[in-house]
Predict the 3D structure of the following.
Amino acid sequence: DIQMTQSPSSLSASVGDRVTITCRTSQTINNFLNWYQQKPGKAPKLLIYAASTLQSGVPSRFSGSGSGTDFTLTISSLQPEDFATYYCQQSYTTPPLTFGGGTKVEIK
Amino acid sequence: QVQLQESGPGLVKPSGTLSLTCAVSGGSISSSNWWTWVRQSPGKGLEWIGEMYHSGSTNYNPSLKSRVTISVDKSTNHFSLKLSSVTAADTAVYFCARKRYYDRSGGAFDIWGQGTLVVVSS
């Protein structure tokens, strides 16, 4: 199985801050990496696919980068609605598809 | 616009079988997508359970494979999950999702149901 390591597991930030979340995979996955946002009691929402492509309707303050084993999700200017938990997910090999452990973004 | 809706019992007895259905509306289950189940234990992360294509091809998480069956019903535009021999460790919110393939990349879960909580308890 491909192991996914997200860091940090949680962070505190203020509105307007630039936030960076990283995801490292245990083997190379090219660009087969997706990012999701999940708010409490809700289903995850696809933000970015193929490492850097913004899903339709997602604000441009979200961006993704990386290839191989190291990936980054960046929120350029954190907004109140962005406080949530973020997950990376690899789609390179199945089974199984695997998710990172999540990064909870909290209000400072 | 495609929407997904899970349904099924919210309480299952230990050693029993968990059965959930996901209704697909606004689109055909015979489209070029994989139909997927993901679960989330209380306060935990996401776990991929498995997926099925309308042709009948399936992929299951090896950790659950011996207990899982996913099926598709094209006539009713539903797909289903059965998980046998459940224990308290199977208590979770179960999500159905569509996995869509994008050019030059693997698939991504672009549409999700709202999720349904299943508790395993006597």
In short: Chain A touches chain B through 29 residues (CB under 8 Å). The longest strand of chain A covers residues 19-25. DSSP finds no helices and eleven strands in chain A. The mean pLDDT of chain A is 97.
